[in-house]
Design goal:
single chain; mainly alpha; 2 domains
Length: about 90
């Protein structure tokens, strides 16, 4: 199989492979094995990687009650309003 890569991408790929002391084929194979775009992994999480839900719970637990009280109750449904200043969708 051959790939049509832009010259700057091919040069970067060659440099990355050389820096890892492997061939371009081996470098690409390692990348594919590590993470395939669109593929899901049911294996164990990498060290220091936590699910987003766990990270959110940690942040929420560390948040002082007075800060939590200032958060809008409709923040999820009206996030465009609070982030971008768009008009609220509900009256």
């Amino acid at each position: 199989m051959s790939l049509n890569l832009r010259p700057e991408i091919e040069a970067k790929l060659t440099a990355l492979a050389a820096a890892s002391s492997v061939s371009v084929d081996d470098y690409l194979a390692a990348l594919v094995e590590k993470q395939s775009p669109g593929a899901t992994s049911n294996g164990p999480l990498e060290p220091n990687k936590k699910p987003l839900s766990a990270r959110i719970r940690e942040i929420w637990a560390d948040m002082p009650p007075e800060v939590r009280a200032k958060l809008p109750s409709d923040g999820a449904s009206e996030h465009d309003h609070y982030i971008y200043g768009a008009p609220k969708r509900t009256a």
